[in-house]
Amino acid sequence: MPRRYTVPGPCTVSWGGVSLGYTKAGVTILPQTQLIPIIDDEHGTEPADWIRAGKSAVVTAVFNDPAAIKAAQPFIGALLSNLDSGGDTQLGKLANDGDTANLNQLGKELIITERDNTNLWKAKYTLPTDPETLALASTVEFLAPISFVVALDDDDTLFYLVPDYMR
Question: Residue 11 is part of which domain span?
Answer without folding.
Answer: 5-35+49-166
